[in-house]
Amino acid sequence: MPVPPHSAAVTRRILRSLERHHPGAFTELTFRNAFELLAATILSAQCTDERVNQVTPALFDRYPTPGALALAEPEHLEALIRPTGFFRSKSRSLVGMARVVVERHGGVVPADLTALVALPGVGRKTANVVLGHALGVPGLPVDRHVLRVANRLGIARSNDPVVVEHQLGAALPKARWTLASDTLILHGRRICKPRPLCDRCDARGDCLHVEVTGPKAPPPARRARAAGAPVSSASQGRRSLGVKKR
Fold first, then answer.
1. Nearest to 39 by CA among 54, 59, 58, 25
2. Are 95 and 72 spatial neighbours (Cβ–Cβ below 8 Å)?
3. Helices 49-62 and 34-43 sit at what angle, rounded to 10 degrees?
4. How far is CA 75 from CA 9, 65, 71, 79, 119, in A?
5. Whether 46 and 136 share a structural domain
6. Are residues 206 and 151 both part of a single domain?
């Protein structure tokens, strides 16, 4: 497994700083129990949490339990979740998930990573979301925001979500896994975007991305012009003749 640029001690320090910047970080999906969070997280693929939260009240009013969802008619379910996109495949995943929860787990969402990822439509990230937020089991979900932010900061080194999950997990106590993920997700949404707002980041002193992409000094001639100083005649001659300096 690749070794992250920063040590575990620096990783913990960076995350403490970001936790102060984003106090009370938590999933932005609305839920009342593990079943609702599991369904909402499946719906959140390629969709905003805000949009999912607009859809789920009617969904859970109609299908409040895994048993009810397992019996859902595709056309009725698809109509309810259509605004989240990919509604046909998501409908199949939701019904399949509910049926397995009923048939293999007595209608109770299992508090086990291996059992969760065996459910239709449930990957490792979704399983960790449910474990950490609804079932009290340490989980460290790694989404695109966590991947981007962790690699930029130097607290991880990989584009593989599972590798990054293990790297961060090794640097942090299990009790901090879920909070760390939530904090990195919020930081990725608000500050460390694809075009980052580095001047607003409390971790910029340790960030490798700032070191690599920070402003570069302009060439001497440009500095001289900016300062109002005359440019040498030799430089002017090379520019007018199109001669390149070797």
1. 59
2. yes
3. 130
4. 52, 19, 12, 6, 22
5. yes
6. yes
Global pTM value: 0.84
Please give the structure tokens belonging to residue 172.
């942090």
Segments forming the whole domain that contains residue 198? 1-215
Provide the CATH number for the domain around residue 179.
Answer: 1.10.340.30
Looking at the chain, the whole-number percentage of residues with pLDDT higher than 90 is 84
Active-site residue among 49, 112, 143, 202? 143
The question of whether 125 is a catalytic residue gets the answer yes
CA 143-41-71 angle, to 5 degrees, is: 150
Alpha-carbon distance of 76 to 74, in angstroms, equals 6
Q: Which of 186-190, 215-219, 239-243 has the highest mean pLDDT?
A: 186-190
206 is catalytic: no
204 and 231 inside one domain? no
Paired tokens of 217:
């000094």
Question: pLDDT tens-digit profile of 103-116?
Answer: 999 999 999 999 99
Instruction: Find the catalytic residue in 125, 199, 206, 245.
Output: 125
- What are the structure tokens assigned to 228, written together? 């109002």
Give residue-wise pLDDT tens across range 11-64: 999 999 999 999 999 999 999 999 999 999 999 999 999 999 999 999 999 999
Q: Which whole-number Å values give the CA distances from 24 to 107, 146, 215, in the listed order? A: 31, 17, 33
Cα–Cα dist 103/205, whole Å: 52
